[in-house]
């Protein structure tokens, strides 16, 4: 009987504590919306803040944070204070899906920046769409996210709430193919990908353009993104005598792959997409990364006049981690949300309307401003109208831009 | 098939790594019938121990000087965690039903992983490990990567030491006796608790050597590295006949060879294009395990301990 009474006591205490904490959070929410002089608008962030891709994810989070702070400092939207709420998706689609539900449930969240991975985006889009909550990804490059699975034949927008500031792999893969074939004069490729939405899609668009140009794909292979032993594949690559390797995937597996290809004795470059353009790629592959290429979306921020202020502000912000590949695009994504909030608030006598989410989606579609990465605006599919791409090469232990431009038709 | 010698070497080297980790699984199982699922994390801790020592040394220390110190530190960390796990997580459950320590082992595995993830600086992503400088060594029919040299020397040395220890020393023979019948061994004056601790310690030390080899081979260590490696080593131990230390090594080598050959050649078999390549190598490794278990349930060398395995 003693056990039973203890059990009841525990149950009562737990229920009580839960009820109290629930009340607490409701009170907190009430305070915010009740204070008419200063409404808090929360910008949600979903990115991998831990795990293999955390370097890039933390760069995204910090850049959104910087955008929110800048908006508050400049009183960009009078009467509105921006706050960020960052959730960690560990690059895992199911965690991303749960985060989407969490963000939708928080009434103060009026826009979300993220996620990093296209596969994660697939599990979030529907949730945001049904809640009319705008989502702007700074990094998703899989074409089907905006244009539907049949994008090559018939483009069709799937979700009106989904936008992105990154251009798609339908451009990025072919851009790498043109650079390899036309500029580097490399004729044969060994294609490897990690079978994820991003990696496999990127490698596919690359191969299509490369064969169209007259190049030859000597072999196509796949790896597991969690694997670190590529000895057997490295040997196959060496013996295939291909001119270079195209890798569709992310740096945690891409870096050891590049290292092991060269350790096996093949002196050929690895070319990949934006998910290889990370300082961690060079760190993990060491000297073997030297000479490898990575394409990335947008122009290099260091070279854009519009980005100088961003870089200086980021430094002044005192963030301990670098803004990484998607920092500038994340800042622009957050800024697009801030601009949409501004439009909606201005049209409603300086107050956040009750159906703010739906109105912000409409306003985002019409957003147009000069951002860190250039002009920011979205086309009828939610894709960015900025189609600039850049090729980087690892030189002296660091990704150095070698060519910036748009895809040749 | 012109790259067959190279693929065999790739497979054997990978297999030696699996084998070194598998020894720890198999010894513990042979003595107390516990599948220590936290062994993969003990291996991971060894890697981080070695890395910590390297970071403590003044910058620019040559790897030749740093290596013995790193190895000692790695072994110290792994052995400490292995012995601590035995003392605080497994010994209190020694006479409990066998499911209880198994669940504890899984819990311990997750705990160790998360502790490194949360508290080791910058360990949320893979950390770089010092590497040998210089390119691969060309031996004609095949090449050997410089990072593999440590493993190629360490694996036979470790196995030789273990064979000597088990067959020739007093403690080794006591270990054999305990694995045959713990109660009778105790009646003969063997301190079985001490033997169990020794088995955990040796398994931990081998795991640390393997982690050091992993770091030098791939140039990185990460908090997640123990999970897959542990699964593979467990497979290797079962493949070789769990409880048999030579079986663990043979099982490891067989597994490594299976992975390398599957990656290299299955794609070339007509009709198998979609089932080959690197992404399928784990599948073929487990197909091999199922085949062995179907045809020879006690494992490759499992005969001698068949009554216990």
Automatic annotation (TrEMBL), chain A:
Pfam families: Peripla_BP_6. The keyword Signal applies. Residues 40-398 form the Leucine-binding protein domain. It comes from the Bacteria. Keywords: Signal. InterPro entries: Leu-bd, Peripla_BP_I. Belongs to the leucine-binding protein family. This is Branched-chain amino acid ABC transporter substrate-binding protein.
Automatic annotation (TrEMBL), chain B:
One of its GO terms (cellular component) is plasma membrane. It is a multi-pass membrane protein. Coiled coil: none annotated. GO terms for molecular function: L-isoleucine transmembrane transporter activity; L-leucine transmembrane transporter activity; L-phenylalanine transmembrane transporter activity; L-valine transmembrane transporter activity. The keyword Transmembrane applies. InterPro entries: ABC_transp_permease, BCAA_transport_permease. One of its GO terms (biological process) is L-isoleucine import across plasma membrane. The chain crosses the membrane at residues 12-35, 42-59, 65-87, 99-120, 149-167, 195-215, 246-266. The keyword Transmembrane helix applies. Pfam families: BPD_transp_2. Keywords: Amino-acid transport, Cell inner membrane, Cell membrane, Membrane, Transmembrane, Transmembrane helix, Transport. Its main location: membrane. It is found in: Cell membrane. Belongs to the binding-protein-dependent transport system permease family. LivHM subfamily. PANTHER family: BRANCHED-CHAIN AMINO ACID TRANSPORT SYSTEM PERMEASE PROTEIN LIVH, HIGH-AFFINITY BRANCHED-CHAIN AMINO ACID TRANSPORT SYSTEM PERMEASE PROTEIN LIVH. This is Branched-chain amino acid ABC transporter permease. It comes from Streptomyces tabacisoli.
């Amino acid at each position: 009987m003693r056990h039973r009474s203890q059990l009841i006591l525990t149950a009562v205490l737990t229920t009580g504590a839960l009820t109290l904490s629930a009340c607490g959070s409701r009170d907190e929410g009430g305070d915010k919306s009740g204070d008419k002089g200063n409404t808090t608008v929360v910008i949600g962030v979903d990115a991998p803040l831990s795990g293999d891709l955390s370097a890039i994810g933390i760069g995204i989070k910090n850049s959104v944070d910087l955008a929110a702070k800048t908006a508050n400092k400049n009183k960009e939207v009078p009467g509105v204070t921006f706050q960020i709420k960052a959730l960690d998706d560990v690059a895992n689609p199911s965690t991303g899906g749960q985060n989407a539900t969490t963000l939708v449930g928080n009434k103060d969240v009026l826009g979300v920046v993220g996620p990093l991975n296209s596969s994660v985006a697939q599990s979030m889009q529907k949730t945001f769409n049904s809640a009319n909550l705008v989502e702007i990804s700074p990094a998703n490059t899989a074409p089907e996210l905006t244009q539907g699975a049949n994008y090559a034949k018939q483009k069709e927008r799937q979700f009106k709430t989904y936008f992105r500031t990154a251009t798609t792999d339908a451009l990025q893969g072919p851009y790498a193919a043109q650079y390899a074939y036309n500029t580097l004069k490399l004729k044969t490729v060994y294609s490897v990908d990690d079978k994820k939405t991003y990696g496999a899609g990127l490698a596919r668009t690359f191969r299509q353009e490369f064969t169209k140009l007259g190049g030859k794909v000597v072999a196509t292979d796949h790896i597991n993104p969690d694997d670190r032993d590529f000895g057997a594949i490295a040997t196959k690559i060496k013996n295939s005598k291909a001119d270079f390797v195209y890798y569709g995937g992310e740096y945690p597996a891409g870096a050891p792959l590049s290292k092991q290809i060269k350790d096996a004795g093949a002196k050929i470059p690895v070319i990949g997409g934006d998910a290889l353009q990370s300082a961690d790629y060079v760190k993990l592959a060491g000297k073997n990364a030297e000479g490898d290429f990575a394409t990335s979306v947008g122009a290099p921020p260091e070279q854009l006049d519009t980005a100088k202020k961003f870089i200086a502000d980021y430094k002044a912000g005192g963030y301990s981690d670098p803004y990484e590949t998607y920092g500038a695009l994340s800042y622009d994504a957050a800024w697009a949300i801030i601009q949409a909030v501004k439009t909606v608030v201005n049209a409603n006598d300086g107050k956040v309307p009750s159906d703010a989410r739906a109105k912000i989606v409409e306003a985002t579609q019409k957003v147009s401003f000069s951002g860190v990465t250039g002009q920011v605006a979205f086309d009828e599919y939610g894709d960015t109208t900025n189609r600039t791409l850049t090729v980087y090469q690892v030189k002296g232990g660091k990704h150095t831009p070698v060519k910036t431009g748009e895809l040749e038709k | 098939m012109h790259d067959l010698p190279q693929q065999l070497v790739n497979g054997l080297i990978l297999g030696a790594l699996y084998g070194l980790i598998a020894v720890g699984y198999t010894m513990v199982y042979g003595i107390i019938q516990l599948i220590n699922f936290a062994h993969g994390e003990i291996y991971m801790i060894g890697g981080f121990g070695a890395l910590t020592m390297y970071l403590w040394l003044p910058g620019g220390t040559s790897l030749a000087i740093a290596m013995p110190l790193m190895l000692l530190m790695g072994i110290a960390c792994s052995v400490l965690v292995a012995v601590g796990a035995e003392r605080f997580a497994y010994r209190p459950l020694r006479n409990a039903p066998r499911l209880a320590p198994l669940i504890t082992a899984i819990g311990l595995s997750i705990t160790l992983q998360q502790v490194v993830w949360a508290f080791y600086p910058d360990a949320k992503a893979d950390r770089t490990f010092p590497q040998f400088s210089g390119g691969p060594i060309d031996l004609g029919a095949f090449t050997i990567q410089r990072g593999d040299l440590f493993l190629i020397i360490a694996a036979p040395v470790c196995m030789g030491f273990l064979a000597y220890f088990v067959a020739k020393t007093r403690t080794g023979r006591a270990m054999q006796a305990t694995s045959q019948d713990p109660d009778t061994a105790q009646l003969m004056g063997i301190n079985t608790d001490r033997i169990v601790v020794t088995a955990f310690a040796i398994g931990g030390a081998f795991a640390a050597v393997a982690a050091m080899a992993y770091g030098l081979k791939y140039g990185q260590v990460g908090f997640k590295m123990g999970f897959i490696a542990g699964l593979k080593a467990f497979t290797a131990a079962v493949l070789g006949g769990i409880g048999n230390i030579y079986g663990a090594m043979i099982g490891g080598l067989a597994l490594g060879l299976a992975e390398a050959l599957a990656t290299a050649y299955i794609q070339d078999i007509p009709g198998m294009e979609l089932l080959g390549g690197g992404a399928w190598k784990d599948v073929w490794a487990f197909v091999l395990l199922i085949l062995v278990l179907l045809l020879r349930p006690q494992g490759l060398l499992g005969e001698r301990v068949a009554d216990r395995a």
